[in-house]
Amino acid sequence: MIIRIKNLRLQTILGVHDRERERPRDVVINAHIEFDGQPSQSDRIEDTLDYESLTQRMTQFVEGSRFFLLEKLSEGLLQLIIEDPRVLKARVEVDKPHALPLTDSVSVESSFERKRNP
């Protein structure tokens, strides 16, 4: 089963320049999460990843962070997602809108694949 969280728009202090650390700036997060479960058969929240709860935790993490690097924020979000042992694969992309002149955004993507026992 795959869950996608699309265009989660949050604000945080992010950047290496003094001007970037003066006030929160926008970030846009997309997550692709493949997990082990068959919630469509049981129709029980316990058999799936609770994406509302996960999104709340992601929001708290981002809004409470003060990273210098986009890479560190992306990796931190990935680590939060893979805390659930049912997650088999995950990919997180974090966009920093208008990070450079003449661009819509700059983004960093982190990914994970759980090693399976043969």
Can you tell me about this structure?
The chain is an alpha+beta fold. It has a single domain (2-113), classed as GTP cyclohydrolase I, C-terminal domain/NADPH-dependent 7-cyano-7-deazaguanine reductase, N-terminal domain (GTP Cyclohydrolase I, domain 2, 2-Layer Sandwich). The protein has 3 helices and 4 strands, in the order E-E-H-H-H-E-E. The mean pLDDT is 94. 25% of the residues lie in helices and 36% in strands. The two termini are 21 Å apart. Helix 2 runs antiparallel to helix 3 (70-81). It has a 4-stranded antiparallel beta sheet, with helices on one face.
Brief synopsis:
The chain has about 120 residues and is α+β, with helices and mostly antiparallel strands. It is about 25% helix and about 35% strand. A four-stranded antiparallel sheet has the order 1-2-3-4, covered by helices on one side.
Largest sheet: number of strands, sense, barrel closure? 4 strands, antiparallel
Number of domains: 1
Strand share of the residues? 35-45%
Proportion of helical residues: 25-40%
CATH architecture: 2-Layer Sandwich
- Pattern of helices and strands: EEHHHEE
Count every beta strand, where a strand is a DSSP E run of 2 or more residues. Answer: 4
